[in-house]
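A.,

Following up on our hallway conversation. Structure tokens first:
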């Protein structure tokens, strides 16, 4: 299944929660897709995430997030 850019945005907001401040995250990673593809090691190195946030990001995927909308 191909993932479209909107799926990465929805994944990011779902993982971090509505209203999450993503300005610093997007400044560092540029796009939600790049953030997702960077993976947990890069997330840790960025210094932008707590271990709890890293686990929240790891526990979902763009495809899983979009599956909710397709049901």
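Then the amino acids I'd put at each of the 71 positions:
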């Amino acid at each position: 299944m191909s993932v479209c850019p909107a799926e990465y945005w929805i994944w990011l907001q779902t993982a971090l929660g509505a209203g999450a401040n993503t300005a610093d995250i997007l400044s560092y990673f540029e796009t939600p897709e790049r953030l997702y593809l960077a993976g947990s090691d890069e997330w840790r190195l960025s210094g932008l995430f707590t271990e709890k946030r890293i686990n929240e990001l790891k526990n979902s995927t763009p495809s899983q997030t979009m599956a909710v909308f397709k049901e």
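The CA atoms of residues 10 and 65 lie 7 Å apart. Curious whether your intuition agrees with the design.

B.
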